[in-house]
Design a protein that fits this description.
With 493 residues, this protein is of the alpha+beta class. The chain has 15 helices and 23 strands. The longest helix has 27 residues.
Protein backbone atom coordinates (compact mmCIF):
# COMPACT_ATOMS: atom_id res chain seq x y z
CA UNK A 1 0.00 0.00 0.00
CA UNK A 2 1.33 3.45 -0.95
CA UNK A 3 2.64 5.58 1.90
CA UNK A 4 0.75 8.88 2.07
CA UNK A 5 1.22 10.18 5.60
CA UNK A 6 3.66 10.89 8.41
CA UNK A 7 2.40 10.47 11.97
CA UNK A 8 3.39 12.69 14.88
CA UNK A 9 2.80 11.55 18.43
CA UNK A 10 2.71 14.60 20.70
CA UNK A 11 2.74 13.31 24.27
CA UNK A 12 2.08 16.35 26.46
CA UNK A 13 1.57 17.11 30.13
CA UNK A 14 -2.22 16.79 30.15
CA UNK A 15 -3.03 14.83 26.98
CA UNK A 16 -1.63 12.70 24.18
CA UNK A 17 -2.25 13.56 20.56
CA UNK A 18 -1.71 11.78 17.27
CA UNK A 19 -1.65 13.95 14.14
CA UNK A 20 -1.28 12.74 10.56
CA UNK A 21 0.39 15.02 8.01
CA UNK A 22 0.14 14.63 4.24
CA UNK A 23 2.88 15.18 1.65
CA UNK A 24 2.29 18.94 1.73
CA UNK A 25 2.82 19.03 5.53
CA UNK A 26 -0.88 19.72 6.01
CA UNK A 27 -2.86 18.14 8.84
CA UNK A 28 -4.94 15.29 7.43
CA UNK A 29 -6.37 13.87 10.65
CA UNK A 30 -5.89 13.92 14.39
CA UNK A 31 -6.97 12.46 17.69
CA UNK A 32 -6.50 13.51 21.31
CA UNK A 33 -6.94 11.80 24.69
CA UNK A 34 -6.52 13.40 28.11
CA UNK A 35 -5.15 11.48 31.10
CA UNK A 36 -5.24 11.90 34.87
CA UNK A 37 -2.97 14.21 36.84
CA UNK A 38 -1.81 12.74 40.15
CA UNK A 39 -0.96 15.02 43.11
CA UNK A 40 0.18 12.84 46.05
CA UNK A 41 1.30 15.86 48.10
CA UNK A 42 1.36 19.64 47.63
CA UNK A 43 3.93 20.44 44.94
CA UNK A 44 4.18 16.81 43.79
CA UNK A 45 3.00 15.91 40.28
CA UNK A 46 2.88 12.40 38.80
CA UNK A 47 1.47 10.48 35.82
CA UNK A 48 0.70 6.79 35.52
CA UNK A 49 3.05 5.59 32.73
CA UNK A 50 0.41 3.14 31.54
CA UNK A 51 -1.96 6.09 31.10
CA UNK A 52 0.63 7.85 28.95
CA UNK A 53 0.92 4.86 26.65
CA UNK A 54 -2.77 3.91 26.52
CA UNK A 55 -3.82 7.51 25.84
CA UNK A 56 -1.30 7.63 22.99
CA UNK A 57 -2.82 4.49 21.43
CA UNK A 58 -6.34 5.87 21.91
CA UNK A 59 -5.36 9.10 20.12
CA UNK A 60 -3.71 7.07 17.33
CA UNK A 61 -6.84 4.99 16.73
CA UNK A 62 -9.00 8.13 16.83
CA UNK A 63 -6.78 9.86 14.26
CA UNK A 64 -6.93 6.93 11.84
CA UNK A 65 -10.71 6.68 12.22
CA UNK A 66 -11.34 10.42 11.78
CA UNK A 67 -9.38 10.51 8.53
CA UNK A 68 -10.44 7.13 7.17
CA UNK A 69 -6.76 6.22 7.05
CA UNK A 70 -5.14 2.81 7.44
CA UNK A 71 -1.99 2.25 9.47
CA UNK A 72 -0.31 0.76 6.38
CA UNK A 73 -0.50 4.18 4.68
CA UNK A 74 1.80 5.78 7.29
CA UNK A 75 5.45 6.00 6.24
CA UNK A 76 6.97 6.80 9.61
CA UNK A 77 6.30 8.10 13.11
CA UNK A 78 7.92 11.00 14.94
CA UNK A 79 7.55 11.41 18.70
CA UNK A 80 7.50 14.71 20.60
CA UNK A 81 7.17 14.65 24.36
CA UNK A 82 6.95 16.56 27.62
CA UNK A 83 10.56 17.00 28.69
CA UNK A 84 12.33 16.25 32.00
CA UNK A 85 9.61 13.82 33.16
CA UNK A 86 11.13 10.61 34.53
CA UNK A 87 10.08 6.97 34.09
CA UNK A 88 11.89 3.95 35.59
CA UNK A 89 10.78 0.46 34.55
CA UNK A 90 11.71 -3.21 34.80
CA UNK A 91 14.07 -4.24 32.00
CA UNK A 92 12.41 -7.65 31.66
CA UNK A 93 8.71 -7.11 32.32
CA UNK A 94 8.34 -3.47 31.26
CA UNK A 95 6.46 -2.62 34.44
CA UNK A 96 7.19 0.83 35.90
CA UNK A 97 8.51 0.71 39.46
CA UNK A 98 6.82 4.03 40.28
CA UNK A 99 4.66 6.65 38.64
CA UNK A 100 6.30 9.04 36.19
CA UNK A 101 7.57 12.08 38.11
CA UNK A 102 6.53 15.10 36.04
CA UNK A 103 8.70 18.06 35.11
CA UNK A 104 6.48 20.33 37.24
CA UNK A 105 7.12 18.32 40.42
CA UNK A 106 9.01 20.17 43.17
CA UNK A 107 9.63 17.31 45.63
CA UNK A 108 13.41 17.51 45.18
CA UNK A 109 13.74 21.28 45.58
CA UNK A 110 15.49 21.17 48.95
CA UNK A 111 17.96 18.57 47.72
CA UNK A 112 18.74 20.69 44.66
CA UNK A 113 19.30 23.79 46.79
CA UNK A 114 21.80 21.88 48.96
CA UNK A 115 23.67 20.61 45.91
CA UNK A 116 23.68 23.94 44.10
CA UNK A 117 26.25 25.73 46.26
CA UNK A 118 28.97 23.11 45.82
CA UNK A 119 28.23 21.65 42.38
CA UNK A 120 26.09 24.25 40.58
CA UNK A 121 28.93 25.65 38.45
CA UNK A 122 30.22 22.21 37.46
CA UNK A 123 26.73 21.09 36.49
CA UNK A 124 26.11 24.21 34.43
CA UNK A 125 29.49 23.98 32.66
CA UNK A 126 28.79 20.42 31.50
CA UNK A 127 25.03 20.37 30.98
CA UNK A 128 24.10 24.02 30.35
CA UNK A 129 21.43 23.68 33.06
CA UNK A 130 20.93 25.48 36.35
CA UNK A 131 20.63 23.20 39.37
CA UNK A 132 16.86 22.94 39.80
CA UNK A 133 14.19 20.33 40.55
CA UNK A 134 12.76 21.08 37.09
CA UNK A 135 15.29 18.74 35.45
CA UNK A 136 15.40 14.93 35.53
CA UNK A 137 18.43 13.87 37.56
CA UNK A 138 17.12 14.64 41.04
CA UNK A 139 13.77 13.00 40.21
CA UNK A 140 15.55 9.83 39.11
CA UNK A 141 17.62 9.87 42.29
CA UNK A 142 14.44 10.23 44.36
CA UNK A 143 12.98 7.05 42.82
CA UNK A 144 16.19 5.12 43.46
CA UNK A 145 16.32 6.32 47.06
CA UNK A 146 12.64 5.98 47.97
CA UNK A 147 11.13 3.05 46.06
CA UNK A 148 11.83 -0.23 47.90
CA UNK A 149 14.65 -2.25 46.31
CA UNK A 150 14.92 0.20 43.38
CA UNK A 151 18.57 1.09 43.97
CA UNK A 152 19.61 -2.52 44.49
CA UNK A 153 17.80 -3.62 41.34
CA UNK A 154 19.21 -0.72 39.32
CA UNK A 155 22.76 -1.58 40.38
CA UNK A 156 22.13 -5.19 39.29
CA UNK A 157 21.13 -3.95 35.82
CA UNK A 158 17.45 -4.83 36.17
CA UNK A 159 15.96 -1.34 35.75
CA UNK A 160 15.89 1.11 32.86
CA UNK A 161 15.48 4.88 32.94
CA UNK A 162 14.07 7.16 30.29
CA UNK A 163 12.30 10.39 29.59
CA UNK A 164 8.80 9.89 28.18
CA UNK A 165 9.96 9.55 24.55
CA UNK A 166 12.30 6.75 25.57
CA UNK A 167 9.60 4.90 27.47
CA UNK A 168 7.15 5.19 24.57
CA UNK A 169 9.76 3.93 22.08
CA UNK A 170 10.47 0.95 24.34
CA UNK A 171 6.74 0.13 24.51
CA UNK A 172 6.10 0.72 20.79
CA UNK A 173 8.97 -1.56 19.80
CA UNK A 174 7.98 -4.14 22.44
CA UNK A 175 11.24 -3.72 24.32
CA UNK A 176 13.59 -3.93 21.35
CA UNK A 177 14.89 -0.33 21.50
CA UNK A 178 16.06 1.61 24.56
CA UNK A 179 17.04 4.98 23.09
CA UNK A 180 16.40 8.69 23.37
CA UNK A 181 17.45 11.73 21.38
CA UNK A 182 19.91 14.51 22.16
CA UNK A 183 17.27 17.11 23.02
CA UNK A 184 15.72 14.96 25.73
CA UNK A 185 19.08 13.73 27.02
CA UNK A 186 20.21 17.34 27.34
CA UNK A 187 17.37 18.02 29.83
CA UNK A 188 18.30 15.24 32.26
CA UNK A 189 21.28 17.00 33.94
CA UNK A 190 23.27 13.81 33.30
CA UNK A 191 24.32 14.50 29.69
CA UNK A 192 27.39 16.49 28.67
CA UNK A 193 26.18 18.74 25.86
CA UNK A 194 29.75 19.36 24.65
CA UNK A 195 30.94 15.74 24.38
CA UNK A 196 27.42 14.49 23.47
CA UNK A 197 27.74 11.66 25.98
CA UNK A 198 26.43 10.65 29.39
CA UNK A 199 28.68 12.14 32.05
CA UNK A 200 30.03 9.47 34.40
CA UNK A 201 30.91 11.94 37.16
CA UNK A 202 27.45 13.50 37.15
CA UNK A 203 25.84 10.07 37.19
CA UNK A 204 27.98 9.21 40.21
CA UNK A 205 27.04 12.51 41.89
CA UNK A 206 23.33 11.71 41.55
CA UNK A 207 23.83 8.00 42.27
CA UNK A 208 22.60 6.82 38.86
CA UNK A 209 24.01 3.51 37.51
CA UNK A 210 25.14 3.96 33.91
CA UNK A 211 23.45 0.67 32.96
CA UNK A 212 20.05 2.38 33.32
CA UNK A 213 20.71 4.98 30.64
CA UNK A 214 19.45 4.78 27.05
CA UNK A 215 21.48 5.14 23.88
CA UNK A 216 21.43 8.73 22.59
CA UNK A 217 20.75 9.37 18.88
CA UNK A 218 20.10 12.45 16.68
CA UNK A 219 16.50 13.66 16.80
CA UNK A 220 15.90 12.70 13.19
CA UNK A 221 17.30 9.19 13.58
CA UNK A 222 16.41 5.51 13.52
CA UNK A 223 14.54 4.50 16.68
CA UNK A 224 13.45 1.06 15.50
CA UNK A 225 10.12 -0.14 14.20
CA UNK A 226 6.82 0.07 16.02
CA UNK A 227 5.22 -3.36 16.27
CA UNK A 228 2.20 -4.23 14.15
CA UNK A 229 0.63 -5.68 17.29
CA UNK A 230 0.75 -2.19 18.81
CA UNK A 231 -0.04 0.19 15.92
CA UNK A 232 -1.75 -2.13 13.45
CA UNK A 233 1.19 -2.14 11.04
CA UNK A 234 4.95 -2.13 11.31
CA UNK A 235 5.88 1.58 11.16
CA UNK A 236 9.44 2.94 11.44
CA UNK A 237 10.02 5.42 14.28
CA UNK A 238 12.26 7.99 12.62
CA UNK A 239 12.27 10.91 15.07
CA UNK A 240 12.17 11.70 18.76
CA UNK A 241 12.36 15.23 20.11
CA UNK A 242 11.56 17.26 23.23
CA UNK A 243 8.40 19.26 22.66
CA UNK A 244 9.98 22.72 22.72
CA UNK A 245 12.81 21.79 20.37
CA UNK A 246 10.17 20.15 18.17
CA UNK A 247 8.28 23.43 18.03
CA UNK A 248 11.51 25.27 17.18
CA UNK A 249 12.09 22.92 14.23
CA UNK A 250 8.41 23.06 13.25
CA UNK A 251 8.62 26.86 13.12
CA UNK A 252 11.55 26.57 10.71
CA UNK A 253 13.99 28.10 13.21
CA UNK A 254 17.00 26.23 11.88
CA UNK A 255 19.40 29.18 11.49
CA UNK A 256 21.44 30.88 14.18
CA UNK A 257 19.45 33.81 15.59
CA UNK A 258 15.98 32.36 14.87
CA UNK A 259 13.69 32.68 17.91
CA UNK A 260 10.32 31.18 18.83
CA UNK A 261 8.10 31.40 21.89
CA UNK A 262 5.48 28.81 22.79
CA UNK A 263 2.61 30.38 24.73
CA UNK A 264 1.23 27.43 26.65
CA UNK A 265 0.65 26.81 30.34
CA UNK A 266 4.06 28.41 30.69
CA UNK A 267 6.11 30.14 28.02
CA UNK A 268 9.16 28.53 26.45
CA UNK A 269 11.43 30.83 24.50
CA UNK A 270 14.17 29.20 22.41
CA UNK A 271 16.83 30.78 20.21
CA UNK A 272 18.88 28.72 17.77
CA UNK A 273 22.56 29.60 18.27
CA UNK A 274 23.89 27.23 15.60
CA UNK A 275 27.11 25.34 16.33
CA UNK A 276 27.95 27.69 19.21
CA UNK A 277 26.99 26.65 22.74
CA UNK A 278 26.44 30.09 24.28
CA UNK A 279 27.21 30.36 27.98
CA UNK A 280 24.49 32.51 29.51
CA UNK A 281 25.39 35.19 32.03
CA UNK A 282 21.75 36.20 32.38
CA UNK A 283 19.84 33.27 33.83
CA UNK A 284 19.16 31.22 30.69
CA UNK A 285 19.99 27.58 30.01
CA UNK A 286 21.99 26.17 27.11
CA UNK A 287 20.63 23.03 25.52
CA UNK A 288 20.63 21.08 22.26
CA UNK A 289 18.43 21.74 19.24
CA UNK A 290 16.73 19.10 17.12
CA UNK A 291 18.96 17.94 14.29
CA UNK A 292 19.41 15.12 11.83
CA UNK A 293 23.19 14.86 12.16
CA UNK A 294 25.55 17.53 13.52
CA UNK A 295 24.50 19.16 16.79
CA UNK A 296 23.09 22.67 17.01
CA UNK A 297 22.56 24.52 20.27
CA UNK A 298 19.88 26.79 21.70
CA UNK A 299 19.48 29.30 24.48
CA UNK A 300 16.26 28.73 26.39
CA UNK A 301 14.29 30.64 28.95
CA UNK A 302 11.23 29.18 30.68
CA UNK A 303 8.40 31.30 32.09
CA UNK A 304 6.56 29.20 34.65
CA UNK A 305 3.14 30.86 34.35
CA UNK A 306 2.02 32.03 30.90
CA UNK A 307 -1.40 31.02 29.62
CA UNK A 308 -2.07 29.49 33.05
CA UNK A 309 -2.78 33.00 34.35
CA UNK A 310 -5.86 33.10 32.08
CA UNK A 311 -7.01 29.75 33.49
CA UNK A 312 -6.55 31.17 36.99
CA UNK A 313 -8.70 34.20 36.15
CA UNK A 314 -11.41 31.84 34.93
CA UNK A 315 -11.28 28.89 37.34
CA UNK A 316 -10.08 30.37 40.61
CA UNK A 317 -11.20 34.02 40.48
CA UNK A 318 -14.29 33.78 38.27
CA UNK A 319 -13.40 37.03 36.49
CA UNK A 320 -13.94 35.53 33.04
CA UNK A 321 -15.99 32.63 31.69
CA UNK A 322 -13.67 31.72 28.78
CA UNK A 323 -10.25 32.45 27.37
CA UNK A 324 -11.88 34.34 24.50
CA UNK A 325 -13.55 36.69 26.97
CA UNK A 326 -10.14 37.76 28.28
CA UNK A 327 -9.35 39.39 24.95
CA UNK A 328 -12.71 41.14 24.79
CA UNK A 329 -12.29 42.55 28.30
CA UNK A 330 -8.68 43.61 27.67
CA UNK A 331 -9.77 45.62 24.64
CA UNK A 332 -12.65 47.24 26.55
CA UNK A 333 -10.26 49.53 28.47
CA UNK A 334 -7.52 51.75 27.01
CA UNK A 335 -4.91 50.54 29.52
CA UNK A 336 -4.58 48.74 32.86
CA UNK A 337 -5.43 51.83 34.90
CA UNK A 338 -2.05 51.60 36.60
CA UNK A 339 -2.46 47.94 37.59
CA UNK A 340 0.49 45.55 37.23
CA UNK A 341 0.21 41.78 37.62
CA UNK A 342 3.14 39.43 38.32
CA UNK A 343 1.80 35.83 38.19
CA UNK A 344 4.58 34.27 40.28
CA UNK A 345 2.27 31.52 41.54
CA UNK A 346 5.19 29.05 41.77
CA UNK A 347 8.01 31.58 41.82
CA UNK A 348 9.67 33.08 38.77
CA UNK A 349 11.64 31.17 36.15
CA UNK A 350 14.12 32.67 33.69
CA UNK A 351 15.92 34.95 33.97
CA UNK A 352 15.35 35.30 37.75
CA UNK A 353 15.13 31.68 38.98
CA UNK A 354 13.50 32.66 42.25
CA UNK A 355 11.25 29.78 43.41
CA UNK A 356 10.43 31.51 46.69
CA UNK A 357 8.73 34.69 45.46
CA UNK A 358 4.98 34.80 44.98
CA UNK A 359 2.49 36.66 42.82
CA UNK A 360 1.33 40.23 43.16
CA UNK A 361 -1.37 42.48 41.74
CA UNK A 362 -0.14 46.02 42.33
CA UNK A 363 -1.61 49.47 41.75
CA UNK A 364 -5.26 48.77 42.59
CA UNK A 365 -7.40 51.86 43.23
CA UNK A 366 -11.10 52.51 43.81
CA UNK A 367 -11.49 52.81 40.06
CA UNK A 368 -9.96 49.42 39.24
CA UNK A 369 -12.36 46.96 37.61
CA UNK A 370 -12.04 43.39 36.35
CA UNK A 371 -11.13 44.53 32.83
CA UNK A 372 -8.05 46.30 34.19
CA UNK A 373 -6.96 43.16 36.06
CA UNK A 374 -7.59 40.90 33.06
CA UNK A 375 -5.65 43.22 30.77
CA UNK A 376 -2.78 43.36 33.26
CA UNK A 377 -2.76 39.56 33.41
CA UNK A 378 -2.46 39.26 29.62
CA UNK A 379 0.21 41.95 29.54
CA UNK A 380 2.18 40.00 32.17
CA UNK A 381 2.64 37.11 29.72
CA UNK A 382 4.25 39.41 27.16
CA UNK A 383 6.30 41.28 29.74
CA UNK A 384 7.77 38.07 31.16
CA UNK A 385 8.62 37.09 27.59
CA UNK A 386 10.31 40.46 27.09
CA UNK A 387 12.55 39.75 30.10
CA UNK A 388 13.72 36.48 28.57
CA UNK A 389 14.30 38.02 25.13
CA UNK A 390 16.25 40.85 26.74
CA UNK A 391 18.42 38.32 28.58
CA UNK A 392 19.11 36.52 25.28
CA UNK A 393 20.07 39.77 23.59
CA UNK A 394 22.47 40.56 26.42
CA UNK A 395 24.10 37.13 26.15
CA UNK A 396 24.52 37.45 22.38
CA UNK A 397 25.19 41.21 22.37
CA UNK A 398 22.78 41.58 19.47
CA UNK A 399 19.08 42.24 18.99
CA UNK A 400 16.52 39.84 17.54
CA UNK A 401 14.76 40.81 14.32
CA UNK A 402 11.46 38.98 14.90
CA UNK A 403 9.72 36.48 17.17
CA UNK A 404 7.78 33.44 15.98
CA UNK A 405 4.84 32.50 18.21
CA UNK A 406 2.87 29.32 18.75
CA UNK A 407 0.89 27.60 21.49
CA UNK A 408 -2.70 28.03 22.65
CA UNK A 409 -2.40 31.59 23.98
CA UNK A 410 -0.91 32.78 20.68
CA UNK A 411 -4.49 32.76 19.34
CA UNK A 412 -5.10 35.86 21.46
CA UNK A 413 -4.53 38.72 19.03
CA UNK A 414 -4.43 41.35 21.80
CA UNK A 415 -1.57 39.46 23.43
CA UNK A 416 0.32 39.06 20.15
CA UNK A 417 0.01 42.77 19.30
CA UNK A 418 1.08 43.81 22.80
CA UNK A 419 4.04 41.42 22.54
CA UNK A 420 5.15 43.07 19.30
CA UNK A 421 4.76 46.50 20.90
CA UNK A 422 6.91 45.59 23.91
CA UNK A 423 9.64 43.86 21.89
CA UNK A 424 9.69 46.46 19.15
CA UNK A 425 9.94 43.73 16.50
CA UNK A 426 7.35 41.82 14.43
CA UNK A 427 5.68 38.72 15.88
CA UNK A 428 4.81 35.96 13.39
CA UNK A 429 2.11 33.37 14.07
CA UNK A 430 1.95 30.36 11.72
CA UNK A 431 -1.15 28.98 10.06
CA UNK A 432 -0.41 25.51 11.48
CA UNK A 433 -0.33 26.11 15.21
CA UNK A 434 0.50 22.45 15.99
CA UNK A 435 4.17 23.29 15.57
CA UNK A 436 5.44 20.69 18.05
CA UNK A 437 3.76 17.89 16.11
CA UNK A 438 4.81 19.46 12.81
CA UNK A 439 8.43 19.51 13.98
CA UNK A 440 8.33 15.82 14.93
CA UNK A 441 6.64 14.97 11.62
CA UNK A 442 9.13 16.92 9.52
CA UNK A 443 12.10 15.35 11.35
CA UNK A 444 10.65 11.87 10.74
CA UNK A 445 9.69 12.68 7.16
CA UNK A 446 13.10 14.06 6.25
CA UNK A 447 14.81 11.16 8.01
CA UNK A 448 12.92 8.56 5.97
CA UNK A 449 12.92 10.50 2.70
CA UNK A 450 9.21 11.31 2.72
CA UNK A 451 9.96 15.06 2.85
CA UNK A 452 12.82 17.09 1.47
CA UNK A 453 14.68 19.40 3.82
CA UNK A 454 13.14 22.43 2.08
CA UNK A 455 9.58 21.21 2.65
CA UNK A 456 7.72 23.22 5.26
CA UNK A 457 4.16 23.26 6.41
CA UNK A 458 1.65 25.86 7.29
CA UNK A 459 2.65 29.23 6.06
CA UNK A 460 1.95 32.45 7.90
CA UNK A 461 -1.42 33.18 9.45
CA UNK A 462 -0.70 36.57 10.93
CA UNK A 463 2.04 39.16 11.27
CA UNK A 464 1.90 41.65 14.14
CA UNK A 465 4.03 44.74 13.66
CA UNK A 466 4.96 47.09 16.52
CA UNK A 467 2.55 50.00 16.85
CA UNK A 468 3.37 51.53 20.25
CA UNK A 469 5.59 54.60 20.49
CA UNK A 470 8.98 54.39 22.17
CA UNK A 471 7.64 56.52 25.01
CA UNK A 472 4.68 54.23 25.69
CA UNK A 473 6.92 51.18 25.51
CA UNK A 474 9.48 52.69 27.91
CA UNK A 475 6.76 53.69 30.39
CA UNK A 476 5.24 50.20 30.42
CA UNK A 477 8.62 48.48 30.83
CA UNK A 478 9.59 50.85 33.63
CA UNK A 479 6.37 50.08 35.52
CA UNK A 480 6.98 46.36 35.06
CA UNK A 481 10.51 46.65 36.40
CA UNK A 482 9.19 48.51 39.43
CA UNK A 483 6.66 45.85 40.38
CA UNK A 484 9.27 43.11 39.84
CA UNK A 485 11.49 44.92 42.35
CA UNK A 486 8.71 44.55 44.90
CA UNK A 487 8.07 40.89 44.13
CA UNK A 488 11.75 39.97 44.20
CA UNK A 489 12.50 42.24 47.16
CA UNK A 490 15.45 43.72 45.29
CA UNK A 491 14.91 47.12 46.88
CA UNK A 492 14.37 48.06 50.49
CA UNK A 493 10.79 48.93 51.33
Amino acid sequence: MEKEYIAAFDQGTTSSRAILFDRACRIAAGGQKEFAQIYPKPGWVEHDPDDLFSSLLDSWRAALASGGIRAEQVAAVGIANQRETVVVWDKFTGRPVYNAIVWQCRRTSEYCERLKEKYGETIYARTGLHMDAYFSASKLRWILENVPFARRRAEKGELLFGTVDCYLIWRLTEGRVHATDRTNASRTMLFNIHTLAWDEELCALFGVPMSMLPEVRPSGGDFGVASAAVLGAEIPIRAAVGDQQGALFGQGCVRAGDVKNTYGTGCFLLMNTGSRAVRSENGLVTTLAASLSKPDYVLEGSVFVGGAVVQWLRDEMGLISSSAESETLARSVPDTGGVSFVPAFVGLGAPYWDPGCRGMIYGITRGTNRAHIVRAALESIALQTFDVVHAMEQDLRSEISELRADGGASANTFLMQFQADMLGVPVRRPAVTETTALGAARLAGISCGFYGEADAGGGEAALFRPQASDAVRAEKLSAWEGVLDRVLLRKAR
